[in-house]
């Protein structure tokens, strides 16, 4: 894999930043996080005692909502030591931390590591280390040094602290912990609900909540794009997103009705969305080397929401199912879970129906090459979960059996083996065991075995205008069977997803005002040793997604810069990826997919010719394409790296061919499910088993075409949403917790586009601080700042001017200051240097003070030694004087005369003390007895108090439940009132439309009356004309003789006949007007009937004030019936009058009689319609009566609810009184207990005083005894001395006395 673009700064910038900064002033703020460790090995030495749990430290802290971390002085090594730390690339650990010890000419430096070793490097080959302030940063986009080493180090330190989620600008980076973390419970759902990104730590719930809040608040579709390698945790994070959305959003279709059973209440839409996932995992997930539950397809789950945030439906799109896993399983892997679950969990009846009795995993060729089980996972339990999910989703037992029949048929197809018929021919034949397996597969698929074998071994192909049988080798038969098995499984998977979508679709009940949150779970960028057509499709998809992210990222940057009104030229980095995308998808000039589709329909095209064609089209014409040497393939330059693709087998993979003879058999299967799967392969014009070409019918669509169409549809949907990005990272290949493979993670960061996003961020102003934070942290770097209030923008500009920063590295907005990458690191280094200088001065002052204290103490000790020495010398001089020794011995004898009296007094004192001791002993016993009684009473009171507390808690719980019930009833009552008001409004609208119809009906009736009058007048004129004709006939009889008058009479007759024709036309016009009035009347009647039907459907939802609606409906019906009766009578009278008039007409006016007959027929039709309308009104009246009865039932239910509510209120008041009394009793008991405790304390104090006094008395008595004994000894010694010196006195002084 090639290296991505380096993210380290230029050498000149590094040389400037590595220079020692000048100290200016001291900062009041302190660092906020730990410094980088020496390398990327795990950090073992600074874990706290609570680190044994997997829960992150911020979960157990009360300071979770604080956005700042505190600096750990133990871990922080990049603090104030003055060392210039750098990152150096290492093949094993990716990067190792060291510090610069010397700068050499030609921009070279000497770097020393913790091990003591040193290395000489170019300045361009090292990356700078971020200050300690940025350690364990929640958002890596805020790092002042945006380089690969800093990103890896930040992710590792957080991962070792169980912080698996980290922001990287718009990305949320999620690292698989490979161990359960207690961070997905309901408490976390409540913790993140409604919280902004700034108020919470990185978490997948935070992303889901942000999408949900924006959907509800802004009414805009949202999308969450989850990508990553296999085993990185895409599926688990997708499930957590769906879990969170189902928890915070309630479906409006899930509201339990009064007549709904509890079982139906549990099968709601939210649970169906959650339970759809086990079905998709069973049919679309498999065990791989990296992941025990790897999704082998991509999916885009759209969850529909109403504007109020309630779930209204869901829909699942799927992409790129790995069909090859059905027929080929690598060692240490498994095929799709459903095969193993079915063989382990199906009961005997189902196994018999699937023809699996007595067969196990080792009996099927498609399964025996991989693992049989997954450690710690029970396929039988997973099967039970699958069946339970099918029931929750509403799949019938017949549908389940049909699905499992196709899955079992795939297994039996895998056991069909072909061999060469003879050495003389290549024709293949089936073994006896193969025929048995094929017979079982055909029985499950609902087709006959013989035509299937014939279509498999001797398929018919069209050569010109004739059909010929084709010879099939054993390899071709095996290929055809594998292709059929893959096709059956893919179509079954697609049909299964369609069935799930039908059950999750609530389109008939939702409105166009709904919006959705789409969750995209798709494989990330892949680079293997052998990259084929599947990798190109996946990498092409990720190229489009990365382009979408780049464009969206800088659209947000542009909006941020526009809001802050800073100078900035917009750059669309999505165009950087367009050449590679055009190279893959463009039809003109022909791209890779178009060239592949073109060669797929060419009969003589091969993979080699396709590769040569690509080389001739693109080699040396674009830097994104180059030929692969010596392998057959090409090299594409993607955003992540250059990838070498091998084109072997691409034409077959793109065509995805199926045997047409077999697909037509399956399309005509007796099994409806199987025939529906292959419905696109049926040909009604051909014979049942005659081969045909799918290309001619327009059904041939290559895999590349389908993938481009799906991706275009997906990108169209994503562009209509507000996206959120999640990148999942695999920490190691051993599936072990706490192991962080830095090179592996670095490769994934490149492939996932995280480093690409950081590269783009560096071109702008990635670091930004609001004015208050900027001023509080860096104001100390400026001298003589004004004292007093300064505006935030004014203060920031003043600080920036005094710091003398280049105008090109910062921008001052309205509320924030924006910096280029690395500028904040320079400011931090200046601040650290200032702190080092001030701390050095402070330490010097403190150390001087401490040394002076020590010196003063030594002087005091010297003076004290001299005083003691002088006193000791005086004492020794006195000890050598004999007179002093004599005085010392005689001094005790001077008070011998007072000894007896003192001894007597002491004896009396001793007796008094003995008496007092006895009294104290009795008092002590009494106090001890009282103390025991008090402790017993306290224990009883505590038991009573505990019982009262338990009772109070029970009553409080009952009170809470009653309050919740009252709130629910209040909400239902409010909803009923709102619905009743809506029905009243609709009823008023219906009454208004009815009144308008009646007015129009009156108008039409008047027009009919006028038409009748005109007809009557015309009839009178007609009679007059008939009379004139008779007179003229008489005149003609009399005038036969008079030939001169014949011509004049003929002219008069013709004029009269023309007048009759005019009258006839007038009658015809009146008839047409009358028919038009009839049609309009019929239209109004149909409108009224539609309104009555609408009123009927609305009355089904009414639950209050039904009596008023009933009275209004009855009045409307009475008025309608009366109007209908009046209209009917009027029309009948008109019909009778017309019939009487038409009976008197003359035969000579035949045309007028024909018109009258037609009018009679129309009037009869109108009468029939009126009778039908009367019958319909009678039916509506009976329905209204039924509705009245239902309404009475609803009113009774409402009355019951009201009475129950009043009863609950009474109970609540009683419980309140009880709680108040219990509370008073508890307070009284607390007061009594407090008093007892006070008395107990006083008694204990008295007891302690008495014991202390008793001890003092005993000590005094002991001292008196000792003094008395000493006095006795002194007196005895004095007597002995007196007896010794008495002879001397008697001999010397006795004669003088």
From TrEMBL:
This is Class II myosin. It comes from the Eukaryota. It holds the Pfam family Myosin_N. Residues 135-832 form the Myosin motor domain. The gene is MYO1_2. It comes from Lithohypha guttulata. Belongs to the TRAFAC class myosin-kinesin ATPase superfamily. Myosin family. Residues 910-1042 form a coiled coil. CDD domains: MYSc_class_II. Residues 711-733 are annotated as: Actin-binding. Residues 81-131 form the Myosin N-terminal SH3-like domain. Keywords: Actin-binding, ATP-binding, Coiled coil, Motor protein, Myosin, Nucleotide-binding. ATP binds at residues 228-235. Residues 1113-1127 have a biased composition (Basic and acidic residues). The lineage of its organism: Eukaryota, Fungi, Dikarya, Ascomycota, Pezizomycotina. Residues 1-54, 1065-1084, 1113-1134, 1239-1261 are annotated as: Disordered.
